[in-house]
Amino acid sequence: MAGGAAATGSLLAACGSSSQEGSGEGAEAMTYLSILPLETLAMAPELLGVAGGYFAKHGLDVELQPVKGTAQGIQTLISGIGPVCRAGQIDLMTTMSEENRPLVAIGTLYRGSGLRILYSKSDPLTKPEDFVGKTIGVPSEGGTSSKVVSLVLAAGGFDPARTPRQVTGLTPGTFNLVQQGRIGGYVTSIDTANIVLSQHEDAGVFDPGTVVKSDSQVYLTTRDVMQQNPDMLKAFLAGIHDTLTAFVADKNFDKTIAKMREQYSFATLDDDVIARKSLGISRELWTGGDPNQPLLVTHEDAWLAGYRELVDAGVAKPGGDASSWFDNSLLPEAKA
């Protein structure tokens, strides 16, 4: 399933490269490594960046290239195949605390969790203690989703080992396993959760961000790329900044949805209600609930609090220099 989505997404990216948006012959080609399949509104900033010509405006011809999860994304990034990928703060901090790798977060996209945990209202998951003894579906063993489940339990003072994980799909159809009692719930994206809620009256959803503070999402690069091609990174972040500004200004998302649909088509984008609801939730996460605050800036206090949470939960090793793991200097609003 995931492989098919990735293949389709790659085709969509190829068909919808920013070169079609008038990027011009002088545009610099750039490969963006996507840890997500492209057919999700969790990728809305990058999709609009291509479809709306926002990357092209800053001189970039961006290809969106799916990879299989964060671990592969980070490895591909370090190998030099692509200069930027998105990653969870959790994954970056666990990686850096174990081995000081040449990685740096250059902008924070989601200021809260972009994950949701679906459950049946007959056996709800609304607080950490509800998870004890329940089997939770996750897309991979030991990945971000599994770590988030562990953090939910740790936030309530419970041993994460008391909640088994089972590798399941991320699709709306996985909710059938919940209804059958085979799993207590499963982790998925915001837009998939909204589809399930619209299709099943017995479905409920838990936002892990209500108890987990370290599940932000950041744009990640390497120290080498920062030194050798900072202008490309600045252009990419400027394009993302412009797309987020467009989403913030587009109250009902009429213009932004229409623009994405010019080049992309998938279930959650094609459904007006689901698309608007999902983008509305994401907009709150991109802005941190305050559209007047600068976009993409990583706040040191929240960053360090996230690291402390991970260390306290035993997810990340202590003693890391977390302040050196992010850099705001490439952002459009950064002081010279």
UniProtKB/TrEMBL annotation:
Highest taxon in the source lineage: Bacteria
PANTHER family noted in UniProt: 4-AMINO-5-HYDROXYMETHYL-2-METHYLPYRIMIDINE PHOSPHATE SYNTHASE THI11-RELATED, THIAMINE BIOSYNTHESIS PROTEIN HI_0357-RELATED
Name recorded for this polypeptide: NitT/TauT family transport system substrate-binding protein
Segments passing through the bilayer: none
InterPro entries, sorted: NMT1/THI5, SsuA/THI5
Residue ranges of domain SsuA/THI5-like in the record: 44-246
Organism: Saccharomonospora amisosensis
Taxonomic lineage of the native organism: Bacteria, Bacillati, Actinomycetota, Actinomycetes, Pseudonocardiales
Swiss-Prot/TrEMBL GO biological process terms: thiamine biosynthetic process
Pfam families the UniProt entry points to: NMT1
